[in-house]
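In the current project phase, the collection of sequences with tokenised folds has grown. One resulting record follows, to show the layout:
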Amino acid sequence: MTTLFYDTMLPAGDLRAVESDRRQLEILRVSGTHKILLRIGETNEEHQGGIASVELDQTSAAALIEGIQMAFSSSGRPLD
């Protein structure tokens, strides 16, 4: 059984996206493994399964968190 740690539809940021477009973002662990995956779904599709994902190890996950914090900070909206 796959364990979802984050699963929500967020506004799409694609160049071709319209204001109402959304994409599903998931952080999950596949059962029977220690693999942590990050998936972003197709526009306006929810619970697709089998879509492209990336595996996050501890180093890449920490760098991703740091990058998100830096991006918000540089936009004048630091995360608390």
Residues 58-74 form the longest helix (17 residues). The CA atoms of residues 1 and 32 lie 8 Å apart.
